[in-house]
């Protein structure tokens, strides 16, 4: 497999460790923090009731070699914050996407997401030699679109009627990318964002 499914990445604020069924209780508690987006129709965050099935689906994708899923753990107190993944893996370019990401409500804005993205993109660019790292979100998720653009990703385009929400509504996918030559500047921005949250 191109990427070791046992990969663990440790940063300043978080550790990304291989997702497993042992994370179930912590992830259920995390998604209940602030009734995270699973109650909002335009997000795809799993509900507490569907968390076990969501983990199982991601582990099946890992075993099939199409996804590397991580649990995000805060270093300060070992609290589980959420999930993120590498997916759409193509070692021939090489390139990959980062996605299926969600973070407990109380940790949002704390620098942990920036640290997580720093770890994921740094490993992809500097260890895997990726020429492109992609991120995508739904057109209706303006908060996510703004966050992706702050990371330094550039808009590639919009795939119309690409996804269907749980309530049946169709939505567009907004596709962004960061290229290898753009990474040094983006890395400085991410490091600065993480540093703002250090004591």
Summarize the structure.
GO terms for molecular function: acyltransferase activity, transferring groups other than amino-acyl groups. 34% of the residues are buried.
Outline the structure in words:
This protein is of the alpha+beta class. It has one domain (9-195): Gcn5-related N-acetyltransferase (GNAT) (Aminopeptidase). Helix content is 30%, strand content 32%. The chain is built from 5 helices and 8 strands. It has helices at 24-32, 51-63, 112-126, 142-150, 183-195, and strands at 9-10, 14-18, 67-74, 80-90, 95-103, 132-138, 154-164, 170-179. The chain has an 8-stranded mixed beta sheet with strand order 1-2-3-4-5-6-8-7, with helices on both faces. α3 (112-126) packs antiparallel against α5. 34% of the residues are buried. The mean pLDDT is 92. This is Amino acid acetyltransferase. GO terms for molecular function: acyltransferase activity, transferring groups other than amino-acyl groups.
Fold blueprint:
Elements (H helix, E strand, L loop, with lengths): L8 E2 L3 E5 L5 H9 L18 H13 L3 E8 L5 E11 L4 E9 L8 H15 L5 E7 L3 H9 L3 E11 L5 E10 L3 H13 L4
Parallel strand pairs: 5-6
Antiparallel strand pairs: 1-2, 2-3, 3-4, 4-5, 6-8, 7-8
Helix pairs in contact: 3-5
The N- to C-terminal Cα distance equals: 39 Å
**Annotated CATH topology:** Aminopeptidase
Total helix count? 5
CATH architecture term: 3-Layer(aba) Sandwich
Described by strand count, sense and barrel closure, the largest sheet is: 8 strands, mixed
Report the uncertain regions: none
Order of helices and strands: EEHHEEEHEHEEH
Total number of distinct structural domains: 1
Average predicted local confidence, pLDDT? 92
- The top-level CATH class is Alpha Beta
Structural class: alpha+beta
In the sheet with the most strands, the strands line up as 1-2-3-4-5-6-8-7
Helix content: 25-40%
CATH superfamily: Gcn5-related N-acetyltransferase (GNAT)
Return Rg in Å.
16 Å
Number of strands: 8
């Amino acid at each position: 497999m191109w990427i070791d499914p046992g990969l663990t990445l440790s940063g300043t604020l978080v550790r990304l460790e291989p997702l497993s069924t042992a994370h179930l209780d912590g992830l259920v508690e995390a998604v209940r923090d602030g009734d995270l987006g699973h109650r909002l129709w335009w997000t795809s965050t799993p509900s507490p009731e569907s968390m076990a099935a969501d983990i199982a689906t991601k582990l099946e994708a890992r075993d099939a070699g199409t996804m590397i899923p991580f649990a995000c753990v805060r270093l300060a107190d070992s609290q589980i914050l959420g999930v993120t993944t590498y997916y759409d893996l193509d070692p021939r370019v090489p390139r990959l996407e980062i996605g299926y990401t969600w973070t407990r409500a109380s940790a949002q804005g704390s620098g942990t997401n920036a640290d997580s993205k720093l770890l994921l993109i740094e490993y992809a660019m500097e260890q895997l030699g990726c020429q492109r790292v992609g991120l995508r979100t739904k057109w209706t998720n303006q908060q996510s679109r703004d966050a992706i653009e702050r990371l330094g990703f550039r808009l590639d385009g919009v795939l119309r009627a690409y996804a269907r929400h749980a309530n049946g509504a169709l939505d567009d996918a907004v596709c962004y990318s960061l290229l290898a030559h753009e990474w040094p500047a983006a890395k400085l921005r991410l490091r600065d964002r993480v540093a703002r949250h250090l004591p």
